[in-house]
Specification:
The complex is a heterotrimer of chains A (about 220), B (about 230) and C (about 270).
Chain A lengths: L6 H38 L4 H16 L2 H11 L9 H26 L3 H10 L3 H31 L11 H12 L2 H31 L6
Chain B lengths: L4 H43 L2 H16 L2 H11 L9 H26 L3 H9 L4 H31 L11 H12 L4 H30 L9
Helix pairs in contact in B: 1-2, 1-4, 1-7, 2-4, 3-4, 4-6, 5-6, 6-8, 7-8
Chain C lengths: L15 E12 L2 E12 L3 E6 L5 H8 L7 E6 L2 E2 L2 E4 L2 E4 L2 H8 L2 E4 L11 H11 L5 H14 L15 H13 L5 E5 L7 H16 L3 E5 L3 H7 L2 E6 L2 E6 L1 H6 L4 H12 L3
Parallel strand pairs in C: 3-10, 3-11, 8-9, 9-10
Antiparallel strand pairs in C: 1-2, 1-4, 4-5, 6-7, 11-12
Helix pairs in contact in C: 3-4, 3-5, 4-5, 5-6
Classes of the chains: A mainly alpha (about 220), B mainly alpha (about 230), C alpha/beta (about 270).
């Protein structure tokens, strides 16, 4: 069968709609998982051993099972305890939960990367706890955390493709619907792949910029 | 509930076991295919000529920008369009191996680049050939470094096999969701499947701890100089 | 002394073993070697000094074609590096041929670069067996002799990580000598060593010099240069500014830049 990319001229609106949903999903997951990650990072330093163990156990479980299973769990499983969610929210919740722990790891390392001396200097200067945290310590975690954060953001973007499994009309789903009808999976999937590649590449460029920004603000030797 | 959990288990455990077996098969084959490919790619990219390294770099990076599901769909749905019809299992093997090899080669590159460049220089100054240097000097030092990230990657690849359920492969996820849709049991089968994957991941993680421990004992790397 | 040119006759009646003509090496926009002409006679010990970035290390790496020069000629033992003579003329040498020629030149690095997963013995015999095709038994015998000569006869089965810096560098010297080179290149051999470990390495190098090995030593150790070197060469910005007997170059240099450099060294008590 010969290839005919002109089909894209007709179907691009559908792909565009799918891309929009993909971007919305990514944004939604990031918006939920970022504070989630901060919470996880802070809980990791909790004085209570019970909290820390619970956190480690949850982390192990969430990272030991495929994301698809988690997705099915939220979509098919939650109705069993009375929570019925439509596809999009369940996809967002499943992914946000999953990513919170990865982000938590990143933020935790970011926190660790701040030299002990910073805390000591703040104490010596008489700065209060919250002031120390928010004005001095947390801003210093950003340069360390930013590059891995952005690279995980690309994982989120790629992860949204899984939502196709629960009929969320994101890009992969849209592509499938289109090529099933047009019998041109090759051209359509190349187009969908190209869109993902471009979006991810954009994020990576942003990451390169972020790394340069971060390099100047590293802890001084 | 019409049937108790026990009865459900009795009725569906063959299917679930079949799914588990398929998952293990997928994991094993993709690891076996991806690992040598990744080694070759990593070595060629780090030490090969520019004419080989750059095209490889482009290929690897394009694959890493794509969602695994898109790659799988491509192999399963799009290749027939070019005349290569593949069974779901074969498509899964190919798609997952390609993705695995791309990511794994990056892991291996990291281990290779952790080797002090002075090692290459000393070998070169002594007159050792490039191949000899790689075989006797570089790779033996890179292997202990590469094992922890390798096992992490293996765990990720095992989880990745669940995507095969989306192209009609009867793996653990597929069997679990099939059983769920037949019996309308929301949690049971999905949790079982989850436990199955968890067991595999946990075993691999244990193996990783053991490997890291025995490596730390025999750790003899050249300290990285400036 | 003219810049970059060898104006006076060689201090030895022996023939030149290392000759460079118009050597140029660029690293991006930086010119590390600027048309360097340089000759070393057989058995001569030459100390090369200069500030960082002056081109000294680049010179060594060009000599054994570790980093081929961008322009100019390198003659080792009357053989032009990088080319091969055929019945019909000359052609560019293959990597394998360059490697064979490189075997005549030994190199000792600032950071030793020993193979950490090999024992001392394995480090020393690897290249003779692989490159010069020496039989294993012979290689081991020769290695034992070399280790004894550098004072480490009891360390044959030790791993580099178990040795001090000075010991590692002595092993590195033995490893280079195992290839029976005609010329030994030393790239700041003691710069990475703790002060109290420097002497043991210098002692080995003095012995080598006494045994008439041709040596080019990039170093900051002015004491060694004055005592052992037949000639001191001062490098700056990719050119040889001045060269001659160490005592003279160090205390009565004829060039202003040399004088400034030597004064800086003296102020730091070197």
């Amino acid at each position: 069968m010969t290839l005919d990319f002109s089909i894209l001229g007709t179907v691009w609106p559908a792909l565009l709609r799918g891309t929009t949903v993909t971007l919305e999903l990514t944004a939604a997951v990031l918006v939920c998982a970022t504070p989630g990650g901060i919470a996880v990072a802070l809980l990791r330093s909790s004085p209570s051993p019970a909290v820390r163990t619970a956190l480690r156990a949850t982390s192990a479980v969430l990272r030991g099972v495929p994301p698809l299973i988690l997705l099915f769990l939220t979509f098919f499983g939650l109705p069993g305890i009375g929570i019925v969610l439509s596809p999009i929210p369940s996809a967002v919740i499943a992914m946000a939960l999953y990513m919170s722990f990865y982000f938590g790891e990143i933020f935790h390392s970011g926190l660790q990367s701040v030299p002990r001396g910073q805390w000591q200097a703040c104490a010596a200067l008489g700065l209060s706890g919250p002031r120390t945290l928010f004005r001095i310590i947390l801003p210093q975690t950003i340069p360390a955390a930013l590059p891995p954060y952005i690279s995980h953001a690309t994982e989120v973007l790629k992860g949204t493709a899984l939502a196709a499994a629960v009929a969320v009309p994101e890009l992969t789903n849209a592509a499938k619907k289109v090529f099933v009808v047009t019998y041109r999976p090759f051209e359509i999937l190349i187009a969908a792949g190209a869109i993902y590649a471009l979006l991810d590449a954009g994020l990576l460029l942003f990451q390169l910029w972020g790394e340069r920004w971060a390099a100047r603000r590293r802890p001084a030797r | 509930m019409i049937m108790s959990y026990y009865d459900l288990l009795l009725q569906y455990y063959p299917a679930l076991l079949q799914g588990l077996w398929t998952t293990l098969l997928l994991s094993f084959v993709t690891l076996v295919l991806a690992t040598p490919a990744a080694v070759v790619i990593a070595v060629l990219r780090e030490t090969g000529s520019r004419y080989i390294a750059v095209p490889l770099a482009i290929l690897v990076n394009i694959v890493r920008l794509l969602p695994a599901l898109v790659v799988l769909f491509f192999v399963f749905y799009a290749m027939p369009q070019l005349g290569h019809r593949l069974s779901p299992l074969a498509a899964a093997f190919i798609g997952l191996s390609v993705m695995g090899a791309a990511y794994m080669s990056e892991d291996f590159r990291g281990s290779l680049s952790a080797i002090d460049p002075g090692q290459y220089r000393a070998a070169k100054a002594l007159g050792l050939s490039h191949l000899h240097t790689l075989r006797r000097i570089i790779i033996p030092q890179a292997v202990p470094l590469a094992i922890p990230p390798y096992i992490t990657r293996a765990i990720i690849m095992v989880k990745g096999t669940s995507l095969a359920s989306m192209i009609a492969v009867g793996d653990l996820t597929a069997q679990a969701s099939r059983a769920t849709s037949i019996t309308y049991q929301p949690f049971f089968f999905i949790v079982l499947a989850g436990l199955g994957y968890l067991a595999i991941s946990a075993l691999l993680a244990l193996f990783q701890s053991w490997a890291e421990f025995s490596i730390a004992r025999r750790y003899r790397l050249a300290p990285r100089q400036g | 002394m003219m810049m970059g040119e060898i104006a006076k006759p060689l201090p030895f009646p022996a023939r030149p073993i290392v000759v460079t003509k118009g050597l140029v090496k660029n690293y991006g926009p930086v010119r590390a070697l600027d048309h360097v002409d340089f000759t070393v006679a057989t058995g001569e010990v030459v100390a090369i000094v200069g500030s960082s970035g002056s081109g000294k290390s680049s010179l060594l790496r060009c000599l054994n074609y570790l980093d081929p020069p961008d322009a100019g000629e390198v003659w080792i033992n009357e053989h032009l590096m990088g080319v091969v003579e055929t019945a019909t003329g000359v052609r560019k040498a293959t990597e394998r041929e360059i490697r064979q020629h490189r075997a005549d030149i030994g190199m000792v690095f600032q950071h030793f670069n020993l193979f950490p997963h090999f024992t001392v013995m394995q480090n020393i015999i690897e290249a003779p067996i692989a490159v010069r095709k020496v039989a294993r038994r012979e290689a081991i015998e020769a290695a034992r002799e070399l280790l004894a000569a550098v004072g480490l006869a009891d360390k044959t089965d030790a791993f580099p990580a178990e040795l001090s810096g000075g010991q590692q560098q002595r092993v590195a010297i033995a490893r280079a000598l195992a290839m029976r080179p005609r010329v030994m290149l030393f790239d700041e051999p003691t710069s990475a060593l703790d002060p109290e470990l420097v002497d043991e390495v210098l002692r080995v190098m003095r012995r080598l010099a006494a045994e008439s090995m041709t040596m080019l030593v990039v170093t900051h150790e002015m004491g060694f240069a004055e005592d052992v070197a037949d000639r001191l060469v001062f490098f700056d910005k990719g050119k040889i500014i001045e060269h001659g007997k160490p005592a003279i170059v160090m205390r009565q240099p004829s060039q202003a830049r040399t004088q400034a450099f030597m004064q800086r060294l003296q102020r730091r008590g070197l």
